[in-house]
């Protein structure tokens, strides 16, 4: 066992900064030290951990295999320490000046974000929300994002991620009323064969449809991919392209009233929306408050929990 009295934990903060920034100069800027001080700290850390940890390249520095192995444990440990310290300070929404960063699946953003904005105006006017797309690398997502509201979550370091089910909804297929195949029964084969417009993965955070179709030996005819749900109803109404949506949007988006819909013929697929967060920040007061607020917003609208 290492005697922690002889180990400077600040060296681990510098290790994380070098890993995140990929250069000594970038790490120095992040931690507020000179490059020479960071280099000296790295030399000490190399001795303590008995490994080179980083090697120089034309683009900066790259971690050794040992450094990669250590990174998750060091990140987790620093997270726990940060949370333990922050718990000594009560989060007061009405006085807080803070920005939270969230990834939100596009299908649910129209429900969540207006309600969240209204509650923040009343309860936490100094709190702001930065919404990021789902294009961030899974290796770095929890260094940049406080939480996610996403479709059934992928495998993002499951040992470090907590989740809570917010809503479950069935999936429907949308087409215009006079679509050439509007009178045909919707089967998996027909669904895959018809031309689609779909939301990009950056908006949904999932490839579940592709995964299920692939398991059946099928593949969608994807003729158009858009970044926002807002574009889809008008595209479907004015073309032969079809799309999918949570059934609750039939009530929330009036543009869908003119479209024909049928249940998605893939029984394995439902739209399950989950709130996900990093285990390291689970008890941090500010994040705990925001998670509880998001849960409350979904609970207040009980229809979100009920399949159509």
Write the layout of secondary structure elements.
Blueprint: H1 10-21, H2 24-31, H3 35-49, E1 54-57, E2 60-63, H4 65-86, E3 98-104, H5 106-123, E4 127-132, H6 141-144, E5 147-151, E6 161-169, E7 171-176, H7 188-193, E8 195-199, H8 201-204, H9 208-215, E9 221-226, H10 232-237, E10 243-246, H11 249-252, E11 259-263, E12 271-278, H12 285-300
Parallel strand pairs: 3-4, 3-5, 8-9
Antiparallel strand pairs: 1-2, 5-12, 6-12, 7-10, 7-11
What does this structure look like?
This protein is of the alpha/beta class. The chain has three domains: 4-86, Winged helix-like DNA-binding domain superfamily/Winged helix DNA-binding domain (Arc Repressor Mutant, subunit A); 98-168 and 272-305, 3-Layer(aba) Sandwich (D-Maltodextrin-Binding Protein, domain 2), CATH 3.40.190.10; 171-269, D-Maltodextrin-Binding Protein, domain 2, CATH 3.40.190. 40% of the residues lie in helices and 22% in strands. It contains twelve helices and twelve strands. The strands form four sheets. Strands 4-3-5-12-6 form a five-stranded mixed sheet, with helices on one face. A three-stranded antiparallel sheet has the order 10-7-11. Strands 1-2 form a two-stranded antiparallel sheet. Helix 1 (10-21) crosses helix 4 (65-86). The protein is elongated and about 75 Å long. The N and C termini lie far apart (57 Å). Residues 303-308 have low confidence and may be disordered. It comes from Palleronia pontilimi. This is LysR family transcriptional regulator. Pfam families: HTH_1, LysR_substrate. InterPro entries: LysR-type_TF (IPR050389), LysR_HTH_N (IPR000847), LysR_subst-bd (IPR005119), WH-like_DNA-bd_sf (IPR036388), WH_DNA-bd_sf (IPR036390), YidZ_PBP2 (IPR037402). Belongs to the LysR transcriptional regulatory family.
């Amino acid at each position: 066992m290492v005697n922690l009295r002889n180990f400077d934990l600040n060296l681990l903060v510098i290790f994380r900064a070098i890993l995140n920034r990929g250069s000594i100069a970038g790490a120095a800027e992040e931690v507020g030290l000179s490059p020479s001080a960071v280099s000296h700290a790295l030399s000490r850390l190399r001795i303590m951990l008995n490994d080179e940890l980083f090697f120089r390249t034309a683009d900066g520095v790259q971690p050794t295999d040992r450094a990669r192995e250590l990174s998750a444990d060091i990140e987790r440990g620093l997270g726990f320490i940060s949370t333990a310290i922050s718990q000594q300070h009560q989060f007061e929404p009405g006085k807080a000046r803070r920005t939270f960063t969230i990834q939100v699946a596009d299908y649910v953003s129209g429900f969540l974000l207006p309600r969240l904005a209204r509650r923040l105006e009343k309860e936490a006017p100094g709190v702001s929300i930065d919404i990021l797309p789902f294009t961030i690398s899974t290796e770095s997502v929890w260094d940049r994002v406080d939480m996610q509201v996403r479709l059934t979550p992928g495998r993002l370091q499951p040992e470090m991620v907590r989740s809570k089910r917010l809503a479950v909804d069935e999936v429907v297929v949308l087409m215009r009323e006079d679509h050439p195949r509007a009178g045909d029964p919707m089967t998996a084969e027909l669904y895959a064969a018809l031309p689609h417009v779909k939301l990009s993965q950056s908006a949904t955070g999932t490839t579940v449809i592709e995964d299920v179709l692939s398991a059946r030996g099928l593949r969608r005819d994807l003729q158009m991919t858009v970044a926002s749900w807002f574009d889809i109803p008008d595209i479907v109404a004015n073309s032969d392209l079809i799309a999918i949506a949570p059934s609750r949007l039939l009530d929330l988006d009036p543009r869908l009233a003119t479209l024909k819909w049928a249940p998605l013929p893939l029984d394995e697929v439902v739209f399950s929306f989950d709130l996900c967060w990093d285990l390291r920040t689970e008890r941090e007061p500010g994040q705990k408050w925001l998670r509880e607020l998001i849960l409350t917003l979904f609970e207040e609208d009980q229809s979100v929990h009920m399949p159509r």
